[in-house]
From TrEMBL:
Coiled coil spans: none
Keywords: ATP-binding, Biotin, Ligase, Nucleotide-binding
GO MF terms, alphabetically ordered: ATP binding; biotin--[biotin carboxyl-carrier protein] ligase activity
Record protein name field: biotin--[biotin carboxyl-carrier protein] ligase
Catalysed reactions, as listed in the record: biotin + L-lysyl-[protein] + ATP = N(6)-biotinyl-L-lysyl-[protein] + AMP + diphosphate + H(+)
Ranges of residues in domain BPL/LPL catalytic: 1-181
Included range, full protein: 40 to 285 of 290
EC number: 6.3.4.15
Keyword Nucleotide-binding on entry: yes
Top EC class for this record: ligase
Species of provenance: Thauera phenylacetica B4P
Lineage: superkingdom: Bacteria
GO cellular component, as recorded: cytoplasm
Length: 246
């Protein structure tokens, strides 16, 4: 896969740009990086806040070739690619929180938002948006008492430059697309589960209107979370996972 990279100073949301106005298909994976976003999108309708220079925010548009396995596990696979890139850069304690947050020692270092574009009669395309915290201001107002981490803290020093980080991450996405295109998420599931932050732990999963409780029993070949409850193992397709205090 070849990448076409566009780097802009500011936009509303790199995901929104690629979803609303996808570049013409020239066979390449299009990447849009923004120094700053004015309306960053998070998962489940949330906002993604960022502070000037404090993060690396970009999106990739990947068009599925005919015959590519269903995009069901793609958002988990994207988390795995990012985790691997960070590990290569020397970050220790990288884990994945279903479906695709990247944690370091339990705190959120990066978030991913995957949006699928239906392509009328053709295989779909996916916009994969990544927000990676580099150096959060000490006084950053972080909502919901979310526990966050940044790359500077995780590496104990100055993080690599954003172009260098982007190159490392795109290298892993290149590998990911190669594997995914032929074998889909089943080929990546084991590597995802090795980094599962909640493996065998008691969790609560908050959905739109219900909360499910159980023990995290990994993920299936479609990327659904497996929750062991008194009634057996349930597949969970969406929700926010948190540790359930015993
Ligand atoms: C989440 O954790 O809820 C997902 C956050 C995803 C944020 C990134 S930043 C680049 C891309 N553009 C967006 O508007 N969102 C994603």
């Amino acid at each position: 896969h070849d990448f076409a990279i566009e780097w802009v100073a500011c936009c509303d949301s790199t995901n929104a740009r690629l979803v609303d106005a996808p570049p013409t298909d020239d066979g390449r994976v299009h990447v849009l990086v923004a120094d700053r976003q004015t309306a960053g999108r998070g998962r489940r309708g949330r906002q993604w806040l960022s502070w000037e220079g404090a993060s690396l925010t970009f999106s990739l548009l990947w068009r599925f070739a005919p015959g590519t396995p269903a995009p069901a596990g793609l958002s988990l696979a994207a988390g795995l690619a990012l985790a691997r890139a960070l590990e290569q850069l020397g970050v220790e304690g990288v884990q994945l929180k279903w479906p695709n947050d990247v944690l370091v020692h339990g705190d959120k270092l990066a978030g991913i938002l995957v949006e699928l574009l239906p392509m009328r009669g053709r295989p779909p395309a996916a916009v994969i948006g990544i927000g990676l915290n580099l150096r959060l201001p000490a006084d950053a107002a972080i909502p919901d008492q979310a526990a966050v981490a940044d790359l500077g803290g995780a590496l104990g020093g100055e993080p690599p430059s954003r172009p260098a980080l982007l190159a490392a991450i795109l290298g892993e996405f290149h590998r990911l697309f190669e594997t995914y295109a032929v074998a889909g998420f089943p080929a990546l599931r084991g590597a995802w589960e090795q980094r599962n932050a909640f493996a065998d732990l008691p969790v609560a999963i908050r959905g739109e209107s219900t909360t499910l409780c159980g023990t995290c029993a990994g993920v299936d070949d479609d990327g659904a979370l497996l929750l062991r409850t008194g009634d057996g193992v349930q597949r969970v397709l969406a929700g926010d996972v948190s540790l359930r205090p015993l």
